[in-house]
Design brief:
Shape: elongated
Number of helices: 3
Structural class: alpha/beta
CATH class: Alpha Beta
Protein name: Isomerase
Keywords: Isomerase
Number of strands: 4
Strand order of the largest sheet: 2-1-3-4
Number of domains: 1
GO molecular function, one term: isomerase activity
CATH topology: Macrophage Migration Inhibitory Factor
CATH superfamily: Macrophage Migration Inhibitory Factor
Helix content: 25-40%
Pfam families: CHMI (PF02962)
InterPro entries: 5-COMe_2-OHmuconate_Isoase, Tautomerase/MIF_sf
């Protein structure tokens, strides 16, 4: 916990220094939700094909999903998701002059979640 998944379009994969972003994201999560740094785990998944709007642009697209143990307020989750979007924009900039599409979702882990 937290379990972090980052889905990246091809354009985002070339524009985003994934390791640097993940390290900054881990620090942000620790500071926001009061967890341990070593508990943060991030997986990057390529989204091989993405289509935005009418398909006229190949704008970078990134979605970050963060799963936390239950008990955080909706306000805290909203604050974290906005901070993640802001951090993404800092790290992506404008790739090739095209504004990226970024999003973040904070959810609670199911009661069946186990780790070792």
């Amino acid at each position: 916990m937290p379990q972090i998944t980052v889905d990246c379009s091809p354009g985002a994969r070339t524009a985003l220094d994934r390791r640097t972003f993940a390290l900054a994201l881990h620090r942000l999560v620790v500071d926001t939700v009061d967890t341990r740094l070593e508990a943060c785990k991030t997986r990057f998944r390529p989204a091989d094909e993405t289509v935005v709007g009418d398909g006229e642009t190949d704008a970078p697209l990134v979605h970050v999903g963060i799963a936390l143990l239950p008990g955080r307020s909706e306000e805290l989750k909203a604050r974290l998701s906005q901070a993640v979007v802001d951090l993404l924009l800092e790290h992506l900039g404008t790739a090739g002059g095209v504004a990226p599409h970024v999003s973040a979702e904070i959810r609670e882990l199911e009661p069946s979640y186990r780790k070792r």
